[in-house]
Amino acid sequence: MEGSSSSSSSSAIFYDFLDRMRNPASLDLVRSIKSFIVSFSFYAANPESDGKKVQEFYATMEDNIRDHPLWAGATDQEVDCAMEGLEKYVMTKLFSRTFASSPEDAKIDLETSHKIHLLQTFLKPEHLDIPVVLRNEASWLLAEKELQKINAFKAPREKLLCIMNCCKVINNLLLNASMSENHVLAGADDFLPVLIYVMIKANPPQLHSNLRFIQLYRRQTKLVSEAAYYFTNLVSAKTFILELNAKSLSIDEIEFEESMHAARLTNKGTEKDATQALEEMTTSQGQTDPGSSAVFHYKERSGSSNYPYMDKEAGDLTVGDVERLLSAYKEVVTKYTSLCTAVRNLSFSRAEPHATNLEAKIVVSTQAEETETTFLKMGFTMGQVRNELLSGKKSAPVQKLTDANCTQSQNYKSMNTECHVEVRYYAGTISCLCLCSAS
Fold it and tell me: Which residues form a coiled coil (predicted)?
């Protein structure tokens, strides 16, 4: 199938790009790419601004690749393949930062999905004036499956291919119907209603965010011609669904309102969850701290929209949630690891000023006591070591203080004799060892 061949071609292009980037001669390109990706962590997420930055980076890198020795004498097609690989690599790395990065995008996703969910309960092909000759369930199902794949990919090109494959199935349906039934087609007048119906039947997840992602991050030089035509039609279909009312369809207004009301009652729990989620997103949008992304790869937001699965049960999750959960898990682990490293380094740096390499032997006279004292403390000075050692033994004077080298860490237990206690203070740790034997 065309979708499979496109996927295979995309993978081959991407792996060829990675192979070239592993060549030592491409070190300057690799540095530029990594530097650009890291730069996104220095400022707050802004879809329009981010999209502009990415498009400018594409243009700069295309010039660099054309002038690079690794592509000396390369054809336009070879350079284009390199750029396709670059786009996939960069946008896969930046996906968690750039996809559905604003509360407004998530809000429209929920509104669209909920509206479609209601329409699915009663909308029929005749409501959209779809000719009988085009009512081919097998073709519609194939188109739906192609469109539902859109959320399984991270690269803009691959998401766009899902849209194109869906539209090509519909286009082929129109062409076949035209040849077999002498049905005179009127282009978009027949194409768009079928696409709208397929979209409603498919209800692809995060439709708005996927379309926005393609629009912002697909290379503008590739969003032209056939791709632009199909993409524009899908955007139009989404807009039509959001604004859809009885006047948009071939249906009595009372019947439409009754059908929508019945659908809301049937899906009351779902509608309540969607309404609550929208309110939370609106609230969190107003509380957003624009500077909080200076450390992370995406804009930190207050409210539940930052943790969309916190209140979910296992039964609430869908297959489409798996990829986002895995991505979130990896991000959490990465941040946790970085935080642990930073705290550990901070602890070491604070301990270093006190970690003077003090080594000494303190010889003391003690009397027998049935207690055990542990001299493993942190952050003590040498004077505190002596005070700790003599604590509770005021009559036991320090006789002398001499250099010593002790590498053991032991408990000191007073015994019926004069005890020679070797003490070492190093890096905030006291090590004590009784060197005497009982008499």
Answer: none
